[in-house]
From TrEMBL:
This is Fibronectin type-III domain-containing protein. GO terms for biological process: cell communication; metal ion transport. Keywords: Calcium, Ion transport, Repeat, Signal, Transport. SUPFAM superfamilies: CalX-like, Fibronectin type III. Gene3D superfamilies: 2.60.40.2030, Immunoglobulins. GO terms for cellular component: membrane. It comes from Paenibacillus sp. SYP-B3998. Residues 1-27 form the signal peptide. Coiled coil: none annotated. InterPro entries: CaCA (IPR051171), CalX-like_sf (IPR038081), Calx_beta (IPR003644), FN3_dom (IPR003961), FN3_sf (IPR036116), Ig-like_fold (IPR013783). Residues 61-156 form the Fibronectin type-III domain.
Length: 267
């Protein structure tokens, strides 16, 4: 125990003299010995390269963790591989997740590239998490100056808004060549998709119009999309004929999810 305390004091003193850091110190078995004030970041805010006190421990030449692909429930983390001296190599990394109540959980990530990637899942929306990464070599030596970062997840997506046709019934002339209708949505805070298809009524696909199916994708901010159906203009005298377009396969579909076209023979 005395040797452990002496080693710990030596590590903290070297870290204090060389770099003003708030760090975790690790015993030979890799268990955390000190976790100062639930902090794992460099106190000077500088993420430039640093060298650890002992050449026998893994060390990070770059103390930067890059977050990306942040959602309401996940964060992707990327960092440069740690290095070692001598014959031993880095075996794995412990990715520690620290929550606001200072609870600390970790998962092992293999050392398989020069740049390491890990995706933290099952996070809570609109919540800050602190991550720090510890390297372990094949001799069970642990790094003591470790990269860390605090990242906040996104808020839950807002409502996508209801999707409706802008008209439930409209006349089209056969010679016009196309029947056009718009799909509108009431809110544009989120991405939304909806499928559509033509439906035979008294007008028949292949005789009076060209059947059409597809998917409309509304990006964030989009409020209107247009669908065009090609009409078949023939020389026959015909009465008024109808066909429909229907929206389906979306949780955002509103009440006006079907529209009917009335084709007028204008020959």
């Amino acid at each position: 125990m005395r040797n452990f305390i002496q080693n710990l004091i030596g590590i903290l003193l070297v870290g204090f003299l060389s770099f003003p850091l708030t760090i975790s110190a690790y015993a030979a078995d890799g268990h955390s010995a000190v976790y100062l004030n639930c902090e794992h970041t460099r106190s000077d805010g500088n993420d430039t390269a640093a060298t650890v006190a002992s050449p026998h421990l893994p060390w990070f030449p770059n103390l930067v963790i890059t977050p990306s692909e942040i959602t309401s429930t996940s964060i992707k983390l990327t960092w440069d591989a740690a290095q070692t001296e001598g014959d031993s190599r880095v075996a794995l990394y412990e990715v520690h997740k620290v929550e606001t109540n200072c609870s600390d959980t970790s998962v092992p990530v293999p050392n398989d590239d020069d740049v390491i990637t890990y995706v933290a899942n099952n996070l809570s929306p609109n919540t800050s998490y602190k991550f720090y990464i510890v390297a372990m070599d094949y001799d069970s030596n642990y790094s003591v100056i470790n990269p860390s970062i605090t990242v906040k997840t996104n808020q839950l997506p807002g409502p996508s808004g209801k999707l409706n046709f802008d008209s439930k019934l409209q006349f089209v002339n056969e010679h016009s060549g196309t029947a056009t209708v718009s799909v509108i949505r009431s809110s544009s805070d989120n991405v939304a998709t909806v499928k559509y298809t033509t439906i035979n009524r008294s007008a028949i696909a292949g005789e009076d119009f060209i059947a059409k199916q597809g998917v409309l994708t509304f990006a964030k901010g989009d409020t209107r999309k247009t669908i065009q159906v090609q009409l078949i203009n023939d020389a026959r005298k015909e009465r008024l004929e109808t066909f429909s377009l229907k929206l389906f396969n979306s949780d955002a579909i509103g009440t006006d999810n079907e529209t009917t076209f009335i084709i007028r023979d204008d020959d």
